[in-house]
């Protein structure tokens, strides 16, 4: 018999989330400590964690706990589980059947796969309590300024579209399928559309269905916004939601202008679905009562508040079946000092996902010069006005730009100008830029675009830079 969904558990969890939404920072810290102790106790039931925690006392602090990453998790998958009714072989067999996305393994566990952009896909199991937490956070936390926001999706005539990868057990698609299955009355209002199909087919399907709300990745939203401006898409949206990739300010403005509706961003991952939700002030609030993020440097030491981290350690306080303790998420975050004007007590974070690569080019004097992906994306968005692109490194002096079908034909000259100027400002040698008009931006199996791609053969001496650690945290 399935215990995937329990009404009392869902209601009590929702009440808890609602109550903590107005708690003081001191109270949130106490809740974190209590839930961390419970998580560590559960983790000791997993052989991997039992070995790693054996020398630590029961009241060990977060900083005392050893960190972990996806490579360790996948290499010791079975031993990292605190349950014995599931293993890697069964989990892999389950996700091989895409038709089972959104259904529970063993009638109990949600199973999500990461995109594997680093060549090592991850598998993440979530128990029923964790799913109840994610459900409550999704329903209650986005609506700080307007409590009715959580229920607008169920208004008469409302239709919700998810545009993304729908051929695997990816967190966003699996969550939509689960919602449809558990709430049959919602199923007619929710549809998923493949971002990997030919663009004309996607546009025709969206036009035919006419959603009132749409959720997708920022790069896909930018592409659809360009089509809306050109008149090849005709949607009347009340809200557009993005996640899974970094959303730039200019990108948000262009998307909102094209569709004439607010754009709301969120931050989540296969490791924890609802890490942060955006308030009416466009600030991402960390759900700190259920997830801990540590902004750390390349040595996994904490960075000062307000400083962009090298990577981020995640501790999932909700999920006890596959305990994630100080898990290297690979994203870069900054904790914003002070309290948000919306009044929420939850911390505000800014996120730079690790989907994009740092580029290393030869400098004018033979030295290595670093170009950050966020900076490259910003100059292309703000100064060249393009949003659907992929910048690939060919060698230590050459970059190749691919532009999406929705970008105007004459934008290549602007892109070349702003990229060369930015590279020169950073000290790079004369940058060679090539335009690849025959190849659109390439989407991975998850449906997302890696906008800045480094060449694997361009490797500065290790002494000149710290080793790169990142992965994409994808929803």
- Assign a percent range to the helix content: 25-40%
Q: Tell me, rounded to a whole number, the average pLDDT.
A: 88
Tell me the major beta sheet: 9 strands, mixed
Distinct helical segment count: 12
Total tally of structural domains: 2
Helices and strands: which structural class? alpha/beta
Radius of gyration: 22 Å
CATH superfamily of the largest domain: ANL, N-terminal domain
Low-pLDDT windows of residues:
144-151, 462-475
Provide the CATH top-level class of the largest domain. Answer: Alpha Beta
User: How much of the polypeptide forms β-strand, as a percent range?
Assistant: 15-25%
Label the overall shape: globular
Q: Give a count of the beta strands, DSSP E runs of length 2 or more.
A: 20
Distance between the termini: 29 Å
Write out the strand line-up for the largest beta sheet, numbering strands in chain order.
Answer: 4-3-5-6-7-8-9-14-13
The name of the CATH topology of the largest domain is: Rossmann fold
Named CATH architecture of the largest domain: 3-Layer(aba) Sandwich
Secondary-structure topology with pairs:
Elements: H1 7-20, H2 25-43, H3 47-53, H4 70-75, H5 88-95, E1 110-113, E2 123-126, H6 128-140, E3 160-164, H7 171-182, E4 190-194, H8 199-209, E5 213-216, H9 218-230, E6 239-242, H10 249-259, E7 263-267, E8 276-278, E9 284-286, E10 291-296, E11 311-316, E12 327-328, E13 332-336, E14 348-352, E15 359-362, E16 368-371, H11 373-383, E17 389-395, E18 398-403, H12 411-425, E19 432-435, E20 452-453
Parallel strand pairs: 3-4, 3-5, 5-6, 6-7, 17-20, 18-19
Antiparallel strand pairs: 1-2, 7-8, 8-9, 9-14, 10-11, 11-12, 13-14, 15-16, 17-18
Helix pairs in contact: 1-6, 9-10, 11-12
């Amino acid at each position: 018999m399935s215990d995937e969904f329990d009404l009392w558990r869902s209601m009590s969890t929702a009440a808890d989330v609602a109550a903590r939404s107005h708690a003081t920072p001191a109270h949130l810290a106490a809740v974190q400590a209590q839930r961390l102790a419970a998580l560590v106790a559960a983790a000791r039931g997993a052989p991997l964690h039992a070995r790693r925690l054996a020398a630590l006392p029961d009241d060990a602090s977060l900083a005392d706990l050893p960190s972990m990453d996806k490579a360790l998790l996948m290499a010791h998958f079975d031993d990292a589980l605190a349950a014995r009714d599931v293993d890697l072989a069964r989990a892999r067999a389950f996700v091989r059947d895409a038709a089972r996305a959104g259904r529970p393994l063993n009638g109990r566990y949600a199973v999500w796969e990461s995109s594997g952009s680093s060549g090592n896909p991850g598998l993440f199991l979530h128990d029923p309590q964790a799913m109840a937490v994610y459900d409550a956070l999704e329903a209650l936390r986005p609506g700080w300024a307007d409590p009715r926001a959580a229920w607008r999706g169920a208004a008469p005539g409302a239709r919700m579209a998810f545009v993304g990868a729908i051929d695997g057990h990816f967190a966003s698609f699996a969550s939509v399928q689960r919602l449809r299955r558990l709430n049959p009355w919602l199923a007619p209002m929710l549809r998923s559309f493949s971002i990997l199909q030919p663009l004309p087919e996607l546009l025709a399907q969206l036009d035919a269905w006419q959603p009132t709300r749409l959720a997708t990745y920022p790069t896909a939203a930018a592409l659809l916004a360009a089509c809306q401006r050109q008149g090849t898409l005709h949607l009347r949206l009340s809200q557009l939601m993005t996640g899974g990739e970094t959303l730039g300010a200019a990108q948000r403005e262009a998307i909102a202008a094209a569709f004439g509706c607010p754009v709301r961003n969120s931050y989540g991952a296969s490791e924890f679905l609802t890490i942060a939700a955006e308030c009416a002030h466009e600030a991402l609030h960390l759900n700190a009562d259920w997830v801990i993020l540590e902004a750390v440097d390349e040595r996994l030491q904490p960075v000062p508040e307000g400083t962009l981290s090298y990577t981020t350690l995640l501790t999932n306080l909700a999920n006890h079946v596959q305990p994630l303790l100080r898990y290297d998420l690979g994203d870069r975050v900054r904790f914003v000092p002070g309290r948000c004007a919306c009044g929420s007590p939850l911390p505000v974070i800014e996120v730079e996902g690790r989907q994009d690569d740092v580029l290393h080019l030869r400098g004018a004097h033979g030295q290595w010069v670093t170009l950050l992906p966020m900076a490259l994306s910003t100059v292309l968005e703000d100064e060249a006005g393009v949003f659907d692109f992929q910048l690939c490194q060919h060698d230590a002096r050459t970059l190749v730009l691919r532009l999406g079908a929705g970008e105007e034909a004459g934008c290549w000259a602007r892109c070349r100008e702003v990229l060369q100027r930015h590279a020169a400002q950073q000290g790079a040698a004369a940058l060679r830029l090539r335009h690849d008009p025959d190849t659109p931006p390439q989407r991975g199996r998850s449906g997302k675009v890696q906008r800045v791609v480094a060449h694997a053969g361009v490797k500065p001496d290790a002494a000149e830079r710290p080793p790169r650690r990142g992965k994409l945290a994808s929803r």
